[in-house]
Amino acid sequence: xxxxxAGVTEATHLLGREHHLVGISTRPVGxxxxxxxTVVFLNSGIIHRIGPNRLYVRLARALARExxxxxxxxxxxxxxxxxPSYAGGAHRSEVELREVVNALDWxxxxxxxxxxxxxxxxxxxxxxxxxxxxxxxxxxAVLLDPFAFRTTGYFLRYYGPRLLNPAVWWRVLTGRSPxxxxxxxxxxxxxxxxxxxxEAPGEPPLRDLxxxxxxxxxxxLREVLERSGRLLYVFTGGLQERYYYRNQFxxxxxxxxxxxxVDFEYYPDSDHxxxxxxxxxxxxxxxVRWFRESFVGTLEMALPTSTQDLSRKLPRAETxxxx
Amino acid sequence: xxxxxxGPPHRRLFGILTRPAQATSSSGAVICPPLGQEAIRSHRxxxxxxxxxxxxxxxxxxxxxxxxxxxxxxxxxxxxxxWMGDIRLAAQELRERVGLxxxxxxxxxxxxxxxxxxxxxxxxxxxxxxxxxxPRGYLEAARTQGREDETQGLDWLGFYYPAHFLYExxxxxxxxxxxxxxxxxxxxxxxxxxxxxxREALELRKARVEEHHLDAPPAWFEEEALGAxxxxxxxxxxxxxxxx
Lengths: 323, 244
Prior knowledge:
The complex is a heterodimer of chains A (323) and B (244). Chain A has helices spanning 55-65, 92-111, 123-134, 152-163, 166-173, 178-194, 214-226, 248-251, 277-295, 299-302, 316-321; strands at residues 8-15, 21-28, 38-42, 70-73, 116-121, 138-144, 230-236, 262-267. Mean pLDDT of chain A is 87; it is low at 304-323. Chain A is α/β, with parallel strands linked by helices and 323 residues long. Chain A is built from 11 helices and 8 strands. The radius of gyration of chain A is 21 Å and the shape is globular. Chain B has a single domain (14-137, 178-243), classed as Rossmann fold, CATH 3.40.50.1820. Chain B has an 8-stranded mixed β-sheet, sandwiched between helices. A 3-stranded antiparallel β-sheet of chain B has the order 7-8-9. In chain B, strand 10 (183-188), helix 6 (195-204) and strand 11 (208-213) form a beta-alpha-beta unit. Chain B is globular, with a radius of gyration of 17 Å. The two termini of chain B are 20 Å apart. The model of chain B has no long low-confidence stretch (mean pLDDT 94). The chains are: A alpha/beta (323), B alpha/beta (244). The A-B interface holds A 1-5, 10-14, 22, 24, 44-50, 52-54, 57-58, 79-82, 272-273, 275-277, 280 and B 1, 3-5, 9-12, 14, 16, 37, 40, 43-44, 47, 68-74, 77, 147, 149, 153, 155, 157-160, 225-228.
């Protein structure tokens, strides 16, 4: 236990059915409030469980001081976690989704936790959304710079001013323009999709579950909101090739009823990993406020009336694992 | 992998022990990590170093200094002058958990410098990997990359170092150190102009120092902000040979 970190204690665990996922729990001294959801942090890219700039440690401790039980762990093959026996033939996103469910099962068995909030930055945010969409026990998610759809407003704002810049045209003419490369890549993918498949029959290509089409994500969002899932989106100015103006997220889903369940921040002054002290402090305050407003003393309202049948929504291979 | 916390209740440190499938050596290795962003970038390399050592029959313990990584505390409460004590605690923990009598100590970047200062008991060999050789020079370089605030604390590559921390880190030196391990091996993948002086200081303390310059990408540095440096396999293999 880490008695000297003010107000919290920490312990190490080997999570998952195969005990191969290295994790740390953080809880308030005196124990977590069982009425609060358990918070689980998901790796950002290949950075181990402390998060970029140790951000996850800071946020985990802040949320534990609010009374929550918090876990940070490494997906298989990342940080200190071992390789699983089940990874063959699945897209990485499917493996990670399985491991989210696996970790939640483990925490449920060990701690009696039955409701969760997932938090992640970048790919961690993508996985957090996938988790809340696929697992009915997840009632909230904090998505920091997750995948976002580029809108007409994005292209006008991002590329419009660049069209007037001669240096940009020079890069296009000499084949060094990132936009040109992206455009040609899209074109190649489209042509490939329309040409006869080179894959062996009966072997569908592996699909990245964190990259749905816009229609799919609209449906997924609607489903999450229909069961009162709470979402906090935070976008920064650090990934301008993906996100460029405040309302881009909302413009991507015109006419969508967010039912007051989506909280949103756009920090154009922040880089992708919140690498300054003031940015980290602001993010911590915002997440703690969201958690408090969403769950502290209001959990009965936030909980879905019944937990969904999880097995219906999990990838096929999860069922083969034996639940 | 065996993760655990160790150390006294007021100073819980995170450690992760990697044991060989079959122990063929009575020796083990304590691995001292770098500081801040360099620790994040090199995490994978140090994990792979542990696995390499396990393949050679050696147990190893990686750990985080107080206020860093998964250990308790934060950089506001951390004191670099206490981190040598953390290294000694880690050595004792490894010795007791695995029942070893002989240890080697491996330190990367600032971890190398701190390991040289730690005066830990029964360390047969010290292996320094691109060690920081002068903390003042190290912090001067940090100041050119980071941003100082009005209290003279430093925001540097994602971590905020308060003024008292910087002052204490800058004041660390080999000067008061009486004993260093007899054998010191230094692997260099990035040249350091202060290395000859550092080597001289070690030799003054009766260490037999060998330098090996390897053409390898630095594990603690990255061109793009992905949170991971390269994994220099050649360096890991060399350290494995030395640690046996």
